[in-house]
Protein backbone atom coordinates (compact mmCIF):
# COMPACT_ATOMS: atom_id res chain seq x y z
CA UNK A 1 0.00 0.00 0.00
CA UNK A 2 1.07 3.56 -0.66
CA UNK A 3 1.68 5.79 2.31
CA UNK A 4 -1.32 7.98 3.24
CA UNK A 5 -0.94 11.69 3.83
CA UNK A 6 -2.69 12.91 6.94
CA UNK A 7 -4.24 16.36 6.69
CA UNK A 8 -4.22 18.76 9.59
CA UNK A 9 -7.48 19.70 11.29
CA UNK A 10 -7.14 23.26 10.00
CA UNK A 11 -6.74 22.07 6.43
CA UNK A 12 -9.79 19.84 6.72
CA UNK A 13 -11.88 22.70 8.15
CA UNK A 14 -10.88 24.88 5.17
CA UNK A 15 -11.97 22.19 2.72
CA UNK A 16 -15.26 21.65 4.56
CA UNK A 17 -16.07 25.38 4.34
CA UNK A 18 -15.19 25.44 0.65
CA UNK A 19 -17.43 22.51 -0.28
CA UNK A 20 -20.44 22.96 2.01
CA UNK A 21 -22.11 25.56 -0.23
CA UNK A 22 -21.52 23.73 -3.52
CA UNK A 23 -24.63 22.12 -4.99
CA UNK A 24 -23.91 18.63 -6.25
CA UNK A 25 -24.96 17.06 -9.55
CA UNK A 26 -26.23 13.49 -9.12
CA UNK A 27 -27.10 12.63 -12.73
CA UNK A 28 -25.07 10.40 -15.00
CA UNK A 29 -25.41 11.40 -18.64
CA UNK A 30 -25.42 7.76 -19.75
CA UNK A 31 -28.59 6.89 -17.83
CA UNK A 32 -31.70 6.00 -19.84
CA UNK A 33 -35.42 6.17 -19.13
CA UNK A 34 -37.23 2.86 -18.60
CA UNK A 35 -40.88 3.50 -17.86
CA UNK A 36 -43.56 0.80 -17.82
CA UNK A 37 -47.33 0.95 -18.28
CA UNK A 38 -50.01 -1.56 -17.37
CA UNK A 39 -53.82 -1.57 -17.31
CA UNK A 40 -55.48 -3.29 -14.37
CA UNK A 41 -59.16 -4.16 -13.86
CA UNK A 42 -60.23 -4.30 -10.20
CA UNK A 43 -63.56 -5.92 -9.37
CA UNK A 44 -65.09 -5.79 -5.91
CA UNK A 45 -68.08 -7.96 -4.96
CA UNK A 46 -69.07 -7.28 -1.37
CA UNK A 47 -71.98 -6.83 0.99
CA UNK A 48 -72.85 -3.47 2.49
CA UNK A 49 -71.24 -4.47 5.78
CA UNK A 50 -68.05 -5.57 4.03
CA UNK A 51 -67.93 -2.28 2.12
CA UNK A 52 -68.44 -0.42 5.38
CA UNK A 53 -65.37 -2.13 6.84
CA UNK A 54 -63.37 -1.73 3.63
CA UNK A 55 -63.35 -4.55 1.09
CA UNK A 56 -59.77 -5.34 0.04
CA UNK A 57 -59.03 -6.46 -3.53
CA UNK A 58 -55.43 -7.44 -4.37
CA UNK A 59 -53.90 -7.36 -7.83
CA UNK A 60 -53.70 -11.09 -8.51
CA UNK A 61 -50.44 -12.41 -10.01
CA UNK A 62 -48.98 -8.96 -9.37
CA UNK A 63 -45.40 -10.12 -9.92
CA UNK A 64 -46.31 -11.08 -13.48
CA UNK A 65 -48.54 -8.04 -14.03
CA UNK A 66 -45.71 -5.69 -13.05
CA UNK A 67 -42.94 -7.78 -14.54
CA UNK A 68 -39.87 -6.30 -16.17
CA UNK A 69 -36.46 -7.69 -17.09
CA UNK A 70 -34.28 -8.15 -13.97
CA UNK A 71 -36.77 -6.09 -11.94
CA UNK A 72 -37.45 -6.45 -8.23
CA UNK A 73 -41.21 -5.92 -7.93
CA UNK A 74 -40.81 -5.14 -4.23
CA UNK A 75 -39.00 -1.90 -5.15
CA UNK A 76 -41.16 -0.16 -7.74
CA UNK A 77 -42.32 3.42 -7.94
CA UNK A 78 -45.77 4.37 -9.23
CA UNK A 79 -45.33 7.50 -11.33
CA UNK A 80 -49.00 8.00 -12.25
CA UNK A 81 -52.46 6.44 -12.06
CA UNK A 82 -55.39 7.12 -14.39
CA UNK A 83 -58.96 5.80 -14.20
CA UNK A 84 -60.23 4.63 -17.59
CA UNK A 85 -63.67 3.25 -16.71
CA UNK A 86 -65.89 2.54 -13.69
CA UNK A 87 -69.10 0.76 -12.73
CA UNK A 88 -71.04 0.66 -9.47
CA UNK A 89 -74.47 -0.59 -8.41
CA UNK A 90 -73.96 0.64 -4.83
CA UNK A 91 -76.57 3.19 -3.65
CA UNK A 92 -73.87 5.17 -1.83
CA UNK A 93 -70.57 6.72 -2.87
CA UNK A 94 -67.58 4.36 -2.81
CA UNK A 95 -64.05 5.46 -1.96
CA UNK A 96 -61.27 3.59 -3.75
CA UNK A 97 -57.79 3.67 -2.23
CA UNK A 98 -54.44 1.98 -2.96
CA UNK A 99 -51.61 1.00 -0.62
CA UNK A 100 -49.13 2.86 -2.80
CA UNK A 101 -46.68 3.49 0.08
CA UNK A 102 -46.59 -0.06 1.43
CA UNK A 103 -42.81 -0.38 1.79
CA UNK A 104 -42.62 1.38 5.13
CA UNK A 105 -44.80 2.25 8.10
CA UNK A 106 -43.51 5.82 7.72
CA UNK A 107 -45.42 7.50 4.91
CA UNK A 108 -43.20 9.57 2.56
CA UNK A 109 -43.86 13.28 2.33
CA UNK A 110 -44.99 13.15 -1.28
CA UNK A 111 -47.71 15.46 -2.58
CA UNK A 112 -50.20 14.42 -5.24
CA UNK A 113 -50.46 16.98 -8.04
CA UNK A 114 -54.12 15.95 -8.39
CA UNK A 115 -54.66 16.46 -4.67
CA UNK A 116 -55.24 13.80 -2.02
CA UNK A 117 -58.88 12.80 -1.74
CA UNK A 118 -60.30 13.49 1.75
CA UNK A 119 -63.53 11.69 2.66
CA UNK A 120 -65.56 11.44 5.89
CA UNK A 121 -64.18 8.69 8.12
CA UNK A 122 -65.81 7.31 11.26
CA UNK A 123 -63.58 7.26 14.35
CA UNK A 124 -64.09 6.90 18.09
CA UNK A 125 -64.14 10.69 18.22
CA UNK A 126 -66.82 10.95 15.54
CA UNK A 127 -66.61 11.72 11.82
CA UNK A 128 -63.61 13.47 10.30
CA UNK A 129 -62.20 13.91 6.81
CA UNK A 130 -59.18 11.75 6.04
CA UNK A 131 -56.94 11.13 3.03
CA UNK A 132 -56.59 7.47 3.93
CA UNK A 133 -55.72 5.14 6.76
CA UNK A 134 -53.97 1.86 7.44
CA UNK A 135 -51.36 2.42 4.73
CA UNK A 136 -53.94 3.21 2.02
CA UNK A 137 -54.31 6.55 0.20
CA UNK A 138 -57.69 7.65 -1.14
CA UNK A 139 -57.56 8.21 -4.91
CA UNK A 140 -61.09 7.95 -6.31
CA UNK A 141 -64.67 8.59 -5.21
CA UNK A 142 -67.40 6.78 -7.20
CA UNK A 143 -70.87 8.30 -7.10
CA UNK A 144 -73.98 6.21 -6.25
CA UNK A 145 -74.97 3.95 -9.18
CA UNK A 146 -72.28 5.58 -11.36
CA UNK A 147 -71.83 3.65 -14.60
CA UNK A 148 -69.36 5.71 -16.63
CA UNK A 149 -66.88 8.55 -16.40
CA UNK A 150 -64.41 10.23 -18.68
CA UNK A 151 -60.77 9.28 -18.30
CA UNK A 152 -59.36 11.03 -15.23
CA UNK A 153 -55.89 11.24 -13.70
CA UNK A 154 -56.01 10.46 -9.99
CA UNK A 155 -52.35 10.23 -8.99
CA UNK A 156 -49.33 12.16 -10.17
CA UNK A 157 -46.66 12.51 -7.46
CA UNK A 158 -45.14 15.94 -7.02
CA UNK A 159 -41.49 16.58 -6.25
CA UNK A 160 -40.67 12.93 -6.89
CA UNK A 161 -37.14 12.07 -7.96
CA UNK A 162 -36.67 12.13 -11.73
CA UNK A 163 -36.74 8.93 -13.78
CA UNK A 164 -32.96 9.03 -14.15
CA UNK A 165 -32.47 9.45 -10.39
CA UNK A 166 -34.68 6.43 -9.78
CA UNK A 167 -32.67 4.31 -12.19
CA UNK A 168 -29.32 5.36 -10.79
CA UNK A 169 -30.02 5.46 -7.06
CA UNK A 170 -33.12 3.33 -6.60
CA UNK A 171 -31.10 0.49 -5.07
CA UNK A 172 -29.34 2.82 -2.64
CA UNK A 173 -30.75 3.27 0.85
CA UNK A 174 -29.63 4.98 4.03
CA UNK A 175 -29.00 1.48 5.42
CA UNK A 176 -26.64 0.28 2.68
CA UNK A 177 -24.91 3.61 1.99
CA UNK A 178 -21.92 2.66 4.14
CA UNK A 179 -21.55 -0.88 2.84
CA UNK A 180 -18.14 -1.33 1.26
CA UNK A 181 -16.73 1.52 3.38
CA UNK A 182 -13.89 0.97 5.85
CA UNK A 183 -13.44 3.55 8.61
CA UNK A 184 -10.36 3.95 10.79
CA UNK A 185 -10.51 5.37 14.32
CA UNK A 186 -8.95 8.82 14.65
CA UNK A 187 -8.32 9.02 10.90
CA UNK A 188 -9.86 11.59 8.56
CA UNK A 189 -10.47 9.32 5.59
CA UNK A 190 -12.42 6.24 4.55
CA UNK A 191 -11.40 3.41 2.26
CA UNK A 192 -14.29 3.09 -0.20
CA UNK A 193 -14.82 0.07 -2.40
CA UNK A 194 -14.56 0.79 -6.12
CA UNK A 195 -17.95 0.93 -7.82
CA UNK A 196 -19.58 2.53 -4.78
CA UNK A 197 -22.35 4.96 -5.77
CA UNK A 198 -20.81 7.78 -3.73
CA UNK A 199 -17.59 7.56 -5.74
CA UNK A 200 -19.61 8.22 -8.90
CA UNK A 201 -21.12 11.34 -7.36
CA UNK A 202 -17.72 12.60 -6.22
CA UNK A 203 -16.30 11.91 -9.67
CA UNK A 204 -19.10 13.94 -11.29
CA UNK A 205 -18.52 16.84 -8.89
CA UNK A 206 -14.77 16.73 -8.43
CA UNK A 207 -14.30 20.41 -9.28
CA UNK A 208 -16.72 21.55 -6.56
CA UNK A 209 -15.50 19.02 -4.01
CA UNK A 210 -11.82 19.32 -4.82
CA UNK A 211 -11.40 15.54 -4.89
CA UNK A 212 -11.03 13.26 -7.90
CA UNK A 213 -11.38 9.58 -6.93
CA UNK A 214 -9.31 8.56 -9.96
CA UNK A 215 -6.38 10.59 -8.60
CA UNK A 216 -6.67 9.46 -4.97
CA UNK A 217 -4.75 6.61 -3.39
CA UNK A 218 -5.92 3.18 -4.57
CA UNK A 219 -5.32 -0.02 -2.64
CA UNK A 220 -5.16 -3.46 -4.26
CA UNK A 221 -7.28 -2.11 -7.14
CA UNK A 222 -10.18 -2.52 -4.75
CA UNK A 223 -10.45 0.51 -2.46
CA UNK A 224 -10.12 4.27 -2.91
CA UNK A 225 -9.03 6.67 -0.17
CA UNK A 226 -11.67 9.41 0.29
CA UNK A 227 -11.60 12.29 2.81
CA UNK A 228 -14.15 11.58 5.53
CA UNK A 229 -15.87 14.97 5.39
CA UNK A 230 -16.31 14.69 1.60
CA UNK A 231 -17.89 11.23 1.81
CA UNK A 232 -20.19 12.24 4.68
CA UNK A 233 -21.29 15.41 2.90
CA UNK A 234 -22.14 13.51 -0.32
CA UNK A 235 -24.16 10.84 1.54
CA UNK A 236 -26.07 13.56 3.42
CA UNK A 237 -26.96 15.42 0.21
CA UNK A 238 -27.83 12.20 -1.59
CA UNK A 239 -30.23 11.24 1.20
CA UNK A 240 -31.89 14.68 1.41
CA UNK A 241 -32.04 15.58 -2.28
CA UNK A 242 -32.63 12.20 -3.93
CA UNK A 243 -33.42 9.20 -1.73
CA UNK A 244 -36.10 10.95 0.35
CA UNK A 245 -37.99 11.67 -2.90
CA UNK A 246 -38.37 8.03 -3.91
CA UNK A 247 -41.72 6.68 -2.62
CA UNK A 248 -41.17 2.96 -3.18
CA UNK A 249 -44.07 0.54 -3.55
CA UNK A 250 -44.01 -3.21 -3.21
CA UNK A 251 -45.90 -3.76 -6.46
CA UNK A 252 -46.21 -7.49 -5.82
CA UNK A 253 -48.41 -6.58 -2.83
CA UNK A 254 -50.38 -3.75 -4.46
CA UNK A 255 -53.94 -3.77 -3.12
CA UNK A 256 -57.08 -1.70 -3.58
CA UNK A 257 -59.71 -1.01 -0.93
CA UNK A 258 -63.36 -0.17 -1.60
CA UNK A 259 -65.15 1.53 1.27
CA UNK A 260 -68.50 3.23 1.98
CA UNK A 261 -70.37 4.83 4.84
CA UNK A 262 -71.94 2.52 7.52
CA UNK A 263 -74.40 -0.01 6.07
CA UNK A 264 -77.06 1.09 8.57
CA UNK A 265 -77.42 4.48 6.85
CA UNK A 266 -77.57 3.25 3.23
CA UNK A 267 -80.35 5.01 1.32
CA UNK A 268 -81.64 1.64 0.07
CA UNK A 269 -80.98 -2.03 0.82
CA UNK A 270 -79.77 -4.64 -1.64
CA UNK A 271 -82.63 -6.53 -3.29
CA UNK A 272 -81.30 -9.74 -1.68
CA UNK A 273 -81.16 -8.19 1.77
CA UNK A 274 -78.14 -7.73 4.05
CA UNK A 275 -76.38 -10.70 2.46
CA UNK A 276 -76.75 -9.29 -1.05
CA UNK A 277 -73.51 -8.56 -2.87
CA UNK A 278 -72.87 -5.22 -4.59
CA UNK A 279 -70.48 -4.90 -7.55
CA UNK A 280 -67.92 -2.13 -8.12
CA UNK A 281 -65.45 -2.22 -11.04
CA UNK A 282 -62.57 0.10 -11.86
CA UNK A 283 -60.12 -0.04 -14.76
CA UNK A 284 -56.86 1.80 -14.12
CA UNK A 285 -53.77 2.60 -16.12
CA UNK A 286 -50.66 2.56 -13.93
CA UNK A 287 -47.26 3.88 -14.92
CA UNK A 288 -44.37 2.56 -12.88
CA UNK A 289 -40.61 2.31 -12.85
CA UNK A 290 -37.83 0.25 -11.34
CA UNK A 291 -34.29 1.25 -10.40
CA UNK A 292 -31.61 -0.14 -12.66
CA UNK A 293 -29.44 -2.96 -11.40
CA UNK A 294 -26.03 -1.64 -10.46
CA UNK A 295 -23.14 -3.68 -11.85
CA UNK A 296 -20.40 -4.73 -9.50
CA UNK A 297 -16.88 -3.65 -10.36
CA UNK A 298 -14.68 -6.64 -11.08
CA UNK A 299 -11.94 -7.20 -8.54
CA UNK A 300 -8.48 -8.00 -9.72
Overall description:
With 300 residues, the protein is an alpha+beta fold. The protein folds into 2 domains: 37-161 and 247-289, Jelly Rolls, CATH 2.60.120; 171-244, no CATH class. The protein is 18% helix and 30% strand. The protein contains 7 helices and 16 strands. Strands 1-16-3-9 form a 4-stranded antiparallel beta sheet. A 4-stranded antiparallel beta sheet has the order 2-15-4-8. Strand 13 (218-219) and strand 14 (223-227) form a beta hairpin. Mean pLDDT is 82; it is low at 1-10 and 295-300.
Structural descriptors:
single chain, 300 residues, alpha+beta, Jelly Rolls, 2 domains, 4-stranded antiparallel beta sheet, 7 helices, 16 strands, 18% helix, disordered N terminus, disordered C terminus
Give a brief rundown of this model.
Helix content is 18%, strand content 30%. It is an alpha+beta fold and 300 residues long.
Distance between the termini: 15 Å
In N-to-C order, the SSE pattern is: HEHEHEEEEEEEEHEEHHEEHEE
* Counted beta strands: 16
For the biggest β-sheet, the strand order reads: 1-16-3-9
CATH topology descriptor of the largest domain: Jelly Rolls
Count up the helices.
7
- Outline the low-pLDDT stretches: 1-10, 295-300
What integer value in Å does the Rg equal?
25 Å
State the shape.
elongated
- Give the CATH architecture of the largest domain: Sandwich
The top level CATH class name of the largest domain: Mainly Beta
Which structural class should the secondary elements be placed in? alpha+beta
Number of domain modules:
2
- Main β sheet profile: 4 strands, antiparallel
Beta-strand portion reads: 25-35%
Mean pLDDT across the residues is 82
Helix content: 10-25%
Amino acid sequence: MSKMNRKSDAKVEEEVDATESAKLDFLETSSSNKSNTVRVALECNATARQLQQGAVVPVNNAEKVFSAINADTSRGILTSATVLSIYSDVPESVTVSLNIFNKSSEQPEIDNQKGWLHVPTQTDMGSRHSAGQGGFRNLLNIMPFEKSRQEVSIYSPEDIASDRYIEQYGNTTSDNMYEGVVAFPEEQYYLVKQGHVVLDVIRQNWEQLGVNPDAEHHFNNKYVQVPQHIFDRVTKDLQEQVLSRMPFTNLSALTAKFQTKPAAVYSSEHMDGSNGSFKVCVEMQLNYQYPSQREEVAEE
